[in-house]
C-alpha cells in the first residue's frame, strides 16, 4: 500500500469517525479531536500491516488510539470514552463476526471457527491495549498524587 492510499484512507476514517461521534452525541468541541484520533489510529493500523499480522497491527493501533484518547481527555477535561468509542469503530472486527455467523448458518463449521478465532483475537488485542494504556495512565496519576502529597508545603 502506498502513501497516497494511506492518506486517502485516513481522510475517509476521519470523516467516518467524525460522523459516528455525532451519532453518539459527543460534545461538539470534541468531534475533531475524536476524529483525528480515529484517523491517526487507522493510519497506524495500515502502516503496521506492512510488517505485522492483522492482530498485531490492531494491537499497535489500539495502543495508539487509547494513548491519544487519554491525552485528548486530559487536555480538554472530558471523559476518555468520548474519544475511545468512535475511534475504535474502524478497528472493531464486525466483518469477522458476520462471516462467522454466515459460515455457521451454512454449516461450514471449520471456516466459521477460523473467522471466530480471528475475531476474538482482534477483540482481545483491542481490549488488552485499552487495559494497558488505562493502567499506565492510572499508575502515573497515582505516582503524581503521591509525590504531591509527600512534598513539603511551601
Write the layout of secondary structure elements.
Elements: H1 3-23, H2 31-48, H3 54-76, H4 81-88, H5 94-105, H6 109-150
Can you give a write-up of this model?
It is a single chain. The protein is mainly α and 154 residues long. The protein has one domain (3-150). 81% of the residues lie in helices and 0% in strands. Helix 1 (3-23) packs across helix 4 (81-88), helix 3 (54-76) packs antiparallel against helix 4 (81-88) and helix 5 runs antiparallel to helix 6. It starts with a helix and ends with a helix. The model has no long low-confidence stretch (mean pLDDT 93). Belongs to the ThrE exporter (TC 2.A.79) family.
Sheet/helix structural class: mainly alpha
Count of DSSP H/I helices: 6
Helix content: over 70%
Strand content: under 5%
Shape, per Cα inertia axes: globular
Look at the structure and give the mean pLDDT. 93
First and last CA, distance: 57 Å
The major beta sheet can be summarized as: none
* Radius of gyration using CA atoms only: 18 Å
Order of helices and strands: HHHHHH
Spans of at least 5 consecutive residues whose pLDDT stays below 50 are: none
- Number of structurally distinct domains: 1
The counted number of beta strands is 0
Amino acid at each position: 500500500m502506498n502513501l497516497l492510499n494511506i492518506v486517502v484512507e485516513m481522510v475517509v476514517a476521519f470523516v467516518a469517525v467524525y460522523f459516528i461521534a455525532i451519532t453518539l452525541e459527543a460534545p461538539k468541541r470534541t468531534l475533531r479531536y475524536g476524529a483525528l484520533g480515529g484517523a491517526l489510529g487507522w493510519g497506524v493500523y495500515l502502516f503496521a500491516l506492512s510488517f505485522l499480522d492483522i492482530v498485531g497491527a490492531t494491537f499497535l493501533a489500539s495502543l495508539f488510539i487509547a494513548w491519544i484518547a487519554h491525552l485528548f481527555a486530559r487536555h480538554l477535561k472530558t471523559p476518555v470514552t468520548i474519544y475511545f468509542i468512535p475511534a475504535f469503530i474502524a478497528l472493531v472486527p464486525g466483518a469477522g463476526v458476520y462471516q462467522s455467523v454466515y459460515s455457521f448458518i451454512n454449516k461450514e463449521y471449520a471456516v466459521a471457527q477460523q473467522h471466530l478465532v480471528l475475531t476474538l483475537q482482534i477483540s482481545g488485542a483491542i481490549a488488552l491495549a485499552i487495559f494497558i494504556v488505562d493502567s499506565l495512565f492510572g499508575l502515573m496519576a497515582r505516582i503524581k498524587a503521591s509525590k504531591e502529597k509527600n512534598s513539603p508545603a511551601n
